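Thread: quick sanity check before group meeting

JM: Hey all, I'm pulling together slides for Thursday and realized we never actually wrote out the predicted structure for the chain we discussed last week. Dropping the sequence here so it's in one place. If anyone has concerns about the input, flag it before I start.
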Amino acid sequence: MAPFDNPEFWNSKNRSPDCYNPPAARTVLPLIKIRTEMVLAGLSKEQIIEKLKAAKAMKEIPPLEPGGMAYMMFKQAYLTDRVPHSLSHVMFFVPGTDPAN
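JM (edit): ok, ran it. Output follows.
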């Protein structure tokens, strides 16, 4: 789930197990599944972005639920080629807002 503009988006060394709470499992995992299927199908970043926009518009991706969070505490994780390779952290998932607000 690295950002598309991250230079390590395609880093095959990445090993980053996440633990999701129930709201995140219901709303973040479907997005991860769709995105992973596209990557494994060999789609380009541009194709993935366009298909994700279409899936969101067609409501194939559920909106984020309040309280969604995940943690990454695996000591053998490999998140980046930069040192340190693994940084334990917690992630909170919140819906984006309209920039005008």
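AS: nice. The longest helix spans residues 45-57. Strands lie at 19-20, 69-72, 89-92.
JM: adding both to the slides.
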